[in-house]
Amino acid sequence: MEATTPSSASYAWKSIIKGRKVIKKGVIWRIGGGKSIRVWGDNWLPGTDMNRVVSPCWRGAEVFAVSLFINQVNYRWKEDLLDYYLLEFEVEKIKAIPLSKTQQHDTLIWPHNPSGEYIVKPGYKFLLKEFQSQQLGTSNPKASKSLWEAVWKLNVPSKVKNLMWRACRDSLPTKSNLVRWKVLTDDACKILREDVVHALYSCPKLQELWNKCPQWKHEKFKLSPSFSDIMSSILVEDKNPALFSMVVWNIWNQQNNSRLGKLTTSIPQLLEQVQDRLQEFSNLHNLVSPSADTPASCWRPPDQGCFKINFDGAF
After folding, report:
1. Is 36 in a helix, a strand, or coil?
2. Which residue among 129, 205, 278, 315 sits deepest, i.e. has the most Cβ atoms within 10 Å of its Cβ?
3. Residue ranges of the Reverse transcriptase zinc-binding domain (predicted)?
């Protein structure tokens, strides 16, 4: 997996090396002793996003191996350590992973094939599924139009509507998209891949905020393949989509300020600002009443002894 490509390499070898990217994305570790597997960063936890641990990584824990969580005497999981470092739903999944009492090596396997071996057909299906998950509904223009119309009707500033639509269309400059656009080479936020869902919802540093907003906190949202799925659910269930959109806009604004070294606000302050701004916008919006119908003006000839010039705004 670490082989290089010399300039004299054959076409066949270069093709194999290119295929390695697919394998690295899709493989998962089968745990033996756990010494070769990093807790944070490696694919070893089945049934989770990218088969990786998403719990916040503690300072200095980047080098932790999975063996740290295994009792080397009775070959059972150290549940106290798991509970201390990881999120509850991850701990439950880890406890379900069987451990061998015989000395086994950690092994990379291809989980998309029952034998664990990589073959081309499952590899193609894996890539196709990943590609389709990135298309965010573009194959259904009717649903896309319906979503846009619902977003456009929200009683929020235009800049917020534009951001929400860009998020639903996966056109925000997240690290994942910047890599796709050949601007960056690494799409990780700390360790996790920073796509739109991660940047605006599932990032661990945002969980304090969403914990204070229970109407929008849902485990299924973290696993959504696209932000449009999250927004569609909130619109359909009528969970105050206008306020949700304002919160998302402020999250994105905060992240940009942080990257630029500007001041950021605390979570309680951010929520207070969001509610104040939405109320202020609603008040201003309500002040604007539809203009009364004015009678159509008719052209009249000038008075005697006078000249009349007709012109429009472009005069």
Report:
1. coil
2. 278
3. 142-210
Angle between helices 11-26 and 120-133 (to 10 degrees): 60
Task: Measure the CA–CA gap between 313 and 315, rounded to whole angstroms.
Answer: 6
**Dihedral class, residue 295 (left if φ above 0, else alpha if ψ from -120 to 50, else beta):** beta
Alpha-carbon distance of 91 to 220, in angstroms, equals 18
Task: Report the distance separating Cα 133 and Cα 148, nearest Å.
Answer: 19
The model scores a pTM over 0.70: no
Greatest CA span in the chain, whole angstroms?
Answer: 113
Q: Are 197 and 224 in contact (CB under 8 A)?
A: yes
Any idea which residue has 């969970």 for tokens?
239
Rounded CA-CA distance 114/92 in Å is: 24
What are the C-alpha distances in Å from 276 to residues 48, 100, 243, 273, 282? 37, 57, 11, 5, 10
AA identity, residue 197: V
Are 250 and 282 in contact by the 8 Å Cβ rule? The answer is no
Q: Return the structure tokens found at 258.
A: 């942080």
SS3 content of the chain, % helix, strand, coil (to 5): 50, 5, 45
Per-residue tokens: 88:
């509850």
Are 77 and 94 in contact, with CB atoms under 8 Å apart? yes
Domain spans of the chain, in order of start? 12-131, 137-285
